[in-house]
Amino acid sequence: MAKKGYNYFDAFVQMAQYSCEAAEYLVETLHNFDIHEMEERVTGLHEIENAADGKRHEITSHLIHEFITPSTGRIFSAWCSSWTRLWTPLRTF
Residue 59 in contact with residue 9, Cβ under 8 Å? Predict the structure, then answer.
């Protein structure tokens, strides 16, 4: 029998993988620091961030349509804002 619906577990696993990928990328950047490669490294980090943002929007869209009531929607929106604040310091890198 085929699965029905969106697989939230796999989506959250992928979000965790994006976080690990970004952390590893940042560690690699700092260990092999070269000012001449900095623009390229920042671009690479932004690509990871954009992929994670895309997945977050995908999850949010499914949640809104499947589970979220107006009151819990505000709570989830606050959680999403927290996730965005997590990435903000990396943008200034």
Answer: no
pTM above 0.85, yes or no: no
What are the CA-CA distances from residue 47 to residues 22, 55, 81 (Å)? 10, 13, 19
Report whether 22 contacts 73 (CB < 8 A): no
The kind and range of the H/E element at 61 are: helix 38-66
Q: Give the tokens for residue 3.
A: 């699965």
d(CA 69, CA 41): 40
CB 74 within 8 A of CB 39: no
What are the percentages of helix, strand and coil residues in the chain, rounded to 5? 85, 0, 15
**Range with the lowest mean pLDDT among 33-37, 38-42, 65-69, 70-74?**
70-74
